Amino acid sequence: MKTIKVSVVTPDGPVYDSDVEMVSTKAQSGELGVLPGHIPMVAPLQIGAVRLKKEGKMEFIAVSGGFLEVRPDQVTILAQSAETASHIDVERALRAKERAEQRMREQKAEHIDFRRAELALQRAINRLAVSEKRF
Ligand code: ATP
Description:
Helix content: 25-40%
Largest sheet: 8 strands, mixed
Number of helices: 2
Bound molecules: adenosine-5'-triphosphate
CATH class of the largest domain: Mainly Beta
Strand content: over 45%
Mean pLDDT: 96
Radius of gyration: 16 Å
């Protein structure tokens, strides 16, 4: 089976490097699946899960936005933060979710801190979903 190399890179260093059969991401424009031989492109990503099919099994990585770059034999995902399912601290994500929900209750929807809390909530929910492989 044909494969494509996927690298996920953050400011703290590489998080994932592997040859996979398929990679699926949540681009700003919607779900974006990449198979070997995909045309070269660059796309901004949403907070979401990167889904990888490797040796017939699915693997998941939580990413907090960033960019996807597709080249003929390589996909690179550059993200502010990224965690594989096994590296997610569920307690921490639950605390972050609680904190964000509390801040959203205290702020008006148009306030800049509301938006910040909303993004923190999205990151926490995404981490919880990836840790539970809920897709
Ligand atoms: P928190 O409020 O818990 O720090 P956050 O969403 O604000 O959450 P980020 O700024 O996205 O955190 O990430 C900061 C660093 O902490 C990154 O290296 C990220 O991978 C890591 N990180 C954040 N939350 C978790 C988690 N629940 N499990 C593992 N690593 C995490």
